[in-house]
């Protein structure tokens, strides 16, 4: 009769036990803010469809101090999402070989952030130009 | 005066312990001592009943993985000088059942290794008389990193998704699967796709990335897993375009 | 072995994540901070007229259709996995909330864009 | 007790055992193979080999050159017909590994690259960066998974051979996880259990390299051949003995004494040139280099460190780029284990025990004198290494002779009659009883660690780089004593699951027997040859009396009996072993004369 009796350890609370996992949970947590922002936009879109009064109501709500504070939080988390998204990117994509040399991970992350910066400026510029 | 260091070792003796318990040892400390050497000292001088795996002492056989101060590491290349003054806590690798003390049951990994078809499935068979396949250094480079996996299982102990769902093929085995797929001599990618794309395959991974962080051989298993998500997704959508035998 | 249908959700997650990473911060800044507080952009930048014009254009419709549903799919997928991570293996329930929510959001977006007209 | 019926059982899943298993599987898929290993196959010590594996490929090279290097490197104690077979098979085996996926390093045109190695006239060492053994082992292991007829017994410890009716007919193994015994019946047994370097103190070997198979065969009456020849590797880490591969020198590294002087030129290996030259200076054979270290130490020209005297392995002039590309593992080892950046600082090194040239006596087809018992790899003495193995010949040997052992064992198993299962089982039960008695006895007093430490210190002082009659005699006496004390060993751990205390005790028993065979063989060889160098009036090679293999026969609790067997000389008559400029001169003369 075998005396083996393997012991399986519980996983409960695993993500609290290592700073790496805490960070992981935080960046996964950005999804809550992305979702919330998606819903805010969705509500705006519905209001827009319902006519000018509803839209203005939405705009007014957006001006509420709590709404602004909330959006500041969303902005922070959304930016954190950008940073972590591009930070993981070198691990998630096939190696990019340029001129026989593999592109360094920092270049990929940097490239992503650069694209974000440019896109943000373009978006702001368009918003600025179109509404002038 | 000779310095000492305290080691806290997670013990589990299935024939006497209901569950794992920490045991403390006090031992002489020198600058050049690895955690493995400390354990060997304990086994030789303090407690013959402590069990753990080891062999090469040079970070290549993959035997001596354990949790050291909460992180998966090879004990033969973790040095006490970096952990001084301690105490140093040593436990069996996370996410695996403990067989005894620092020894985990690793049959699950071996089983997975066997399932990924870790051998060349020749693209163009060749006889010995025809000599070697030609493979340029650039072609070698495509898979070399993934072929340096020593099966130490640190990445499994690092991957919460494996801990939560042991059916997940996991980073190490998927890195090896990718190693063969990426080899210019191999033509078995389609055959291996079944496992890559299966429910126990790559999509269990949520890109935690800790696997690559702890890998002692810079295999970057996270990269292998995630590259294959893209391949599996492409294959999935193509299978709608070409319903029967659409796999290419 | 059963083939996973994850590629669909993973694809949407990835697309949404990429959009959110590239455009998210700027969008939040525009709609949630700059316009409400009237900094940098004209206070009436998002006036009814402006926004209707935008939402009635093809480009505007495409933009909205990309942003809103993909943000929701991205978030839904991530939240679904996070629930699993913290030990809530809701199965169908969690699936319904996360992906069902995203699907509902997608349908509402479509409906709204249609009713805004061209 | 569980019983598993196999056709061929292979003990050891390192390079040799895996190659044997694949050979059997390919020869006849109907044959059932049991592959036993006390560790998971990829943990086997083949994994640690760094430098490379020999096989003639270049057009200006030839089998004849490889033959000559091997035979002279072995100081003419080689079986020349076996060496002929060996060198002719090497290239094919290396190509076979290539077909199985081994990531050999390549030339820009896609062909396999080769590097220089100590004692080899022409570059013929195939390599996979500096992790050749690792890649070969994983390639073989992963390829073996393809064959359903190979049933692995991973983490099963072989406790003894089952010999019945004058034939090896199986093995008794312990499942380490449970402590339970299994009898594996088989028509033939292949031993591929590796070397025995751990009987010495400072060594490059893994903890599992304890000579188990050698001791098992020996105890069943198979002689151990040429056991006095133990190779010291000249460039190892002080203290731990971890290896810095010979490839460091193949790539152009220098050995410097405390004055920064390339001292090898003082030992007949010169002249010192900036570029590496085959068979000269740092690329001389290992025995010569280790001996030169010893002399430097005597002259007080080594550097004294906390872990013993060292010399410097200087790689600085190779530059970080080349080091990272060609010697990545060495770079990491030096950096992480010693805190030395080899691109900036020379690495402190000293010789350590590395390889056991001798082993289980087998013929050129890997058959031992005990019918049904085959051996391959480092545990065997097939006759290609003689008194000193050349680097990179061993990995090639694993493939060439692993295959031979597998094929021969398969053929034997098909033809051999089998004894009744009940008889075999009774034997296995006796093995179980005897082995368990180690644990269950309660009156033991000798500690394993103490015995092991004394054994290792004894071997180092008695059978080191240079040997003297009185220290060898002292070593023999001490080993007799240790074997007696071992019979009174105490095992603290009485449990069944993963009881390594118990396994270590069994291994220590094996080691003591092997150590004794080494020490007595050494004491009796009254000459200097290859790795066996004496300083007590026997400094010269003595072909008249000792151009023969020593054979150690097991003699129970008494001392081993040493006698001698002939050496097969076909066409290379013993000559002076010369390296460096002197070697080239001698060779030229031989060609013209
Ligand atoms: C650091 C180092 C570097 C080296 N570099 C080179 C090189 O560059 N070139 C070269 O040619 N050679 C080199 N060598 C030598 C060469 O690597 C070895 O001789 C060779 O790998 C031995 O292989 P093997 O298959 O005989 O044994 P191993 O690989 O040692 O395998 C032994 C097997 O037997 C099993 N075993 C042992 N005892 C038992 C038991 N009681 N029960 C069950 N199983 C058991 C083990 O589990 C293992 O699977 C090197 C050696 C070392 C130590
Ligand atoms: S991928 Fe890295 S961490 Fe995982 S088993 Fe292989 S070597 Fe170890
Ligand atoms: S840690 Fe696990 S979740 Fe993926 S990136 Fe690595 S396999
Ligand atoms: S002992 Fe081999 S990897 Fe640590």
UniProtKB/TrEMBL annotation, chain A:
<dbReference type="Pfam" id="PF02300">
    <property type="entry name" value="Fumarate_red_C"/>
</dbReference>
<dbReference type="InterPro" id="IPR034804">
    <property type="entry name" value="SQR/QFR_C/D"/>
</dbReference>
<protein>
    <submittedName>
        <fullName>Fumarate reductase subunit C</fullName>
    </submittedName>
</protein>
<keyword id="KW-0812">Transmembrane</keyword>
<feature type="transmembrane region" description="Helical">
    <location>
        <begin position="107"/>
        <end position="130"/>
    </location>
</feature>
<feature type="transmembrane region" description="Helical">
    <location>
        <begin position="21"/>
        <end position="46"/>
    </location>
</feature>
<keyword id="KW-1133">Transmembrane helix</keyword>
<dbReference type="InterPro" id="IPR003510">
    <property type="entry name" value="Fumarate_red_C"/>
</dbReference>
<keyword id="KW-0472">Membrane</keyword>
<feature type="transmembrane region" description="Helical">
    <location>
        <begin position="66"/>
        <end position="86"/>
    </location>
</feature>
<dbReference type="GO" id="GO:0016020">
    <property type="term" value="C:membrane"/>
</dbReference>
<keyword id="KW-1003">Cell membrane</keyword>
TrEMBL record, chain B:
<keyword id="KW-0408">Iron</keyword>
<dbReference type="InterPro" id="IPR004489">
    <property type="entry name" value="Succ_DH/fum_Rdtase_Fe-S"/>
</dbReference>
<dbReference type="GO" id="GO:0051537">
    <property type="term" value="F:2 iron, 2 sulfur cluster binding"/>
</dbReference>
<dbReference type="GO" id="GO:0046872">
    <property type="term" value="F:metal ion binding"/>
</dbReference>
<comment type="subunit">
    <text>Part of an enzyme complex containing three subunits: a flavoprotein (frdA), an iron-sulfur protein (frdB), and diheme cytochrome b (frdC).</text>
</comment>
<feature type="domain" description="4Fe-4S ferredoxin-type">
    <location>
        <begin position="139"/>
        <end position="169"/>
    </location>
</feature>
<comment type="pathway">
    <text>Carbohydrate metabolism; tricarboxylic acid cycle; fumarate from succinate (bacterial route): step 1/1.</text>
</comment>
<dbReference type="InterPro" id="IPR006058">
    <property type="entry name" value="2Fe2S_fd_BS"/>
</dbReference>
<feature type="domain" description="2Fe-2S ferredoxin-type">
    <location>
        <begin position="8"/>
        <end position="96"/>
    </location>
</feature>
<keyword id="KW-0003">3Fe-4S</keyword>
<dbReference type="InterPro" id="IPR017896">
    <property type="entry name" value="4Fe4S_Fe-S-bd"/>
</dbReference>
<dbReference type="Pfam" id="PF13085">
    <property type="entry name" value="Fer2_3"/>
</dbReference>
TrEMBL record, chain C:
<keyword id="KW-0472">Membrane</keyword>
<keyword id="KW-1003">Cell membrane</keyword>
<dbReference type="InterPro" id="IPR034804">
    <property type="entry name" value="SQR/QFR_C/D"/>
</dbReference>
<feature type="transmembrane region" description="Helical">
    <location>
        <begin position="53"/>
        <end position="75"/>
    </location>
</feature>
<protein>
    <submittedName>
        <fullName>Fumarate reductase subunit D</fullName>
    </submittedName>
</protein>
<keyword id="KW-0812">Transmembrane</keyword>
<dbReference type="Pfam" id="PF02313">
    <property type="entry name" value="Fumarate_red_D"/>
</dbReference>
<feature type="transmembrane region" description="Helical">
    <location>
        <begin position="96"/>
        <end position="116"/>
    </location>
</feature>
<dbReference type="GO" id="GO:0016020">
    <property type="term" value="C:membrane"/>
</dbReference>
<dbReference type="GO" id="GO:0006106">
    <property type="term" value="P:fumarate metabolic process"/>
</dbReference>
<dbReference type="InterPro" id="IPR003418">
    <property type="entry name" value="Fumarate_red_D"/>
</dbReference>
<feature type="transmembrane region" description="Helical">
    <location>
        <begin position="12"/>
        <end position="41"/>
    </location>
</feature>
From TrEMBL, chain D:
<feature type="binding site">
    <location>
        <position position="245"/>
    </location>
    <ligand>
        <name>substrate</name>
    </ligand>
</feature>
<keyword id="KW-0560">Oxidoreductase</keyword>
<feature type="binding site">
    <location>
        <begin position="394"/>
        <end position="395"/>
    </location>
    <ligand>
        <name>FAD</name>
    </ligand>
</feature>
<keyword id="KW-0472">Membrane</keyword>
<feature type="domain" description="Fumarate reductase/succinate dehydrogenase flavoprotein-like C-terminal">
    <location>
        <begin position="452"/>
        <end position="579"/>
    </location>
</feature>
<feature type="binding site">
    <location>
        <position position="233"/>
    </location>
    <ligand>
        <name>substrate</name>
    </ligand>
</feature>
<dbReference type="InterPro" id="IPR030664">
    <property type="entry name" value="SdhA/FrdA/AprA"/>
</dbReference>
<keyword id="KW-0249">Electron transport</keyword>
<dbReference type="InterPro" id="IPR014006">
    <property type="entry name" value="Succ_Dhase_FrdA_Gneg"/>
</dbReference>
<dbReference type="GO" id="GO:0050660">
    <property type="term" value="F:flavin adenine dinucleotide binding"/>
</dbReference>
<dbReference type="InterPro" id="IPR037099">
    <property type="entry name" value="Fum_R/Succ_DH_flav-like_C_sf"/>
</dbReference>
<dbReference type="InterPro" id="IPR003952">
    <property type="entry name" value="FRD_SDH_FAD_BS"/>
</dbReference>
């Amino acid at each position: 009769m075998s005396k083996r009796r393997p012991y399986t350890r519980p996983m409960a609370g695993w993500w609290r036990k290592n700073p790496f996992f805490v960070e992981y949970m935080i960046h996964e947590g950005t999804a809550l803010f992305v979702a919330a922002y998606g819903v805010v936009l969705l509500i705006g879109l519905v209001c827009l469809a319902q006519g000018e009064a509803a839209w203005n109501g939405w705009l007014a709500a957006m001006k509420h101090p709590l709404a602004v504070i909330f959006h500041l939080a969303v902005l922070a988390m959304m930016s954190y999402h950008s940073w972590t998204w591009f930070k993981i990117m070198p691990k998630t994509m096939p190696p990019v070989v340029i001129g026989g040399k593999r592109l360094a991970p920092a270049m990929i992350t940097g490239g992503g952030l650069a694209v974000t910066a440019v896109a943000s400026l373009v978006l702001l510029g368009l918003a600025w130009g179109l509404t002038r | 005066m000779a310095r000492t260091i305290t080691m806290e070792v997670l013990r589990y003796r299935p024939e006497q312990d209901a569950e794992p318990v920490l045991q403390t040892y006090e031992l002489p400390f020198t600058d050049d001592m690895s955690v493995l050497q400390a354990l060997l000292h304990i086994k030789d001088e303090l407690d013959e009943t402590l069990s753990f795996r080891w062999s090469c002492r040079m970070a290549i056989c993959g035997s001596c993985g354990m949790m050291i101060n909460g992180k998966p590491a090879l004990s033969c290349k973790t040095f006490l000088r970096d952990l001084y003054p301690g105490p140093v806590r040593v436990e069996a690798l996370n996410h695996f059942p403990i067989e005894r003390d620092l020894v985990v049951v690793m049959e699950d990994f071996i089983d997975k290794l066997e399932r990924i078809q870790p051998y060349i499935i020749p693209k163009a068979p060749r006889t010995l008389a025809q000599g070697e396949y030609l493979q340029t250094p650039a072609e070698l480079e495509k898979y070399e990193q993934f072929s340096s996996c020593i099966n130490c299982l640190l990445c499994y102990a690092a991957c919460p998704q494996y801990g939560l769902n042991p059916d997940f093929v996991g980073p190490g085995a998927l890195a090896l699967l990718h190693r063969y797929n990426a080899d210019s001599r191999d033509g078995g990618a389609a055959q291996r796709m079944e496992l890559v794309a299966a429910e126990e395959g790559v999509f269990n991974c949520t890109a935690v990335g800790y696997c690559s962080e702890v890998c002692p051989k810079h295999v970057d298993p996270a990269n292998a897993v995630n590259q294959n998500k893209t391949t599996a997704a492409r294959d999935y959508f193509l299978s709608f375009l070409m319903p029967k035998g659409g796999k290419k | 072995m059963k083939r996973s249908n994850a590629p669909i959700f993973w694809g949407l997650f990835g697309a949404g994540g990429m959009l959110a990473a590239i455009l998210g911060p700027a969008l939040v800044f525009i709609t949630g901070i700059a316009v409400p507080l009237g900094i940098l952009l004209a206070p009436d930048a998002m006036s009814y007229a402006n926004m209707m014009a935008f939402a009635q254009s093809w480009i505007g419709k495409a933009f909205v259709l990309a942003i809103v549903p993909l943000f929701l799919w991205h978030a839904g997928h991530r939240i679904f996995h996070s629930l699993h991570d913290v030990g809530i293996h809701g199965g169908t329930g969690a699936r319904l909330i996360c992906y069902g929510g995203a699907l509902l959001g997608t349908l509402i977006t479509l409906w709204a864009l249609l009713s805004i007209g061209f | 007790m569980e019983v598993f019926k196999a056709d061929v059982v292979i003990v050891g899943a390192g390079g040799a055992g895996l190659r044997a298993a694949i050979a059997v599987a390919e020869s006849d898929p109907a044959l059932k193979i049991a592959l036993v290993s006390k560790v998971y196959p990829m943990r086997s010590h083949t994994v640690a080999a760094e430098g490379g594996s020999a096989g003639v490929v270049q057009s200006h090279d030839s089998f004849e050159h490889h033959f000559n290097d091997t035979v002279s490197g072995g100081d003419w104690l080689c079986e020349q017909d076996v060496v002929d077979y060996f060198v002719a098979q090497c290239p094919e085996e290396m190509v076979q590994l290539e077909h199985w996926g081994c990531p050999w390093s390549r030339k820009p045109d896609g062909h396999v690259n080769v590097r220089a190695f100590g004692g080899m006239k022409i570059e013929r060492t195939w390599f996979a960066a500096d992790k050749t053994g690792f890649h070969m082992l994983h390639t073989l292991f992963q390829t073996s998974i393809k064959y359903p007829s190979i049933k692995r017994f991973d983490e099963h410890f072989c406790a003894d051979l089952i010999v019945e009716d004058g034939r090896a007919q199986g093995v008794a193994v312990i499942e380490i996880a449970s402590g339970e015994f299994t009898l594996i019946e088989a028509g033939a047994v292949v031993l591929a259990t590796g070397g025995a370097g751990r009987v010495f103190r400072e060594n490059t070997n893994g903890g599992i390299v304890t000579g188990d198979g050698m001791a098992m065969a020996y105890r069943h009456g198979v002689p151990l051949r040429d056991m006095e020849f133990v190779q010291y590797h000249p460039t190892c880490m002080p203290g731990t003995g971890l290896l810095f591969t010979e490839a460091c020198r193949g790539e152009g590294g220098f050995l410097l004494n405390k004055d920064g002087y390339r001292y090898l030129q003082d030992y007949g290996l010169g002249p010192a040139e900036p570029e590496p030259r085959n068979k000269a200076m740092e690329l001389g054979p290992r025995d010569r280099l280790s001996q030169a270290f010893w002399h430097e130490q005597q002259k007080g020209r080594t550097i004294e460190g906390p872990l013993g005297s060292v010399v410097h392995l200087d790689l600085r002039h190779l530059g970080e780029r080349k080091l990272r590309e060609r010697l990545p593992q060495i770079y990491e080892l030096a950096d992480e284990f010693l805190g030395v950046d080899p691109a900036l600082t020379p690495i402190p090194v000293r010789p350590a025990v590395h390889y056991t040239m001798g082993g289980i006596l087998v013929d050129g087809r890997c058959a031992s004198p005990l019918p049904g018992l085959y051996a391959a790899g480092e545990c065997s003495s097939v006759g290609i290494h003689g008194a000193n193995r050349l680097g990179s010949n061993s990995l090639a040997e694993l493939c060439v002779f692993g295959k031979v052992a597998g094929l021969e064992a398969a053929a034997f198993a098909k033809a051999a009659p089998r004894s009744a299962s009940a008889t075999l089982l009774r034997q296995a039960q006796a093995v179980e009883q005897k082995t368990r008695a180690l644990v269950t006895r309660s009156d033991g007093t000798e500690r394993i660690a103490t015995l092991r430490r004394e054994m290792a210190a004894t071997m180092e002082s008695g059978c080191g780089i240079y040997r003297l009659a009185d220290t060898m005699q002292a070593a023999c006496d001490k080993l007799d004593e240790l074997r007696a004390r071992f019979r009174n060993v105490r095992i603290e751990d009485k449990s069944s699951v993963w009881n390594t205390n118990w396994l270590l005790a069994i291994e220590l028993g094996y080691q003591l027997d092997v150590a004794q065979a080494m020490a007595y063989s050494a004491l009796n060889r009254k000459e200097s040859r290859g790795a066996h160098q004496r300083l007590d009036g026997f400094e010269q090679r003595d072909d008249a009396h000792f151009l023969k293999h020593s054979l150690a026969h097991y003699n129970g609790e008494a001392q081993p009996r040493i006698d001698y067997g002939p050496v097969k000389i076909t066409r290379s008559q013993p000559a002076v072993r010369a390296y460096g400029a002197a070697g080239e001169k001698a060779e030229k003369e031989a060609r013209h004369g």
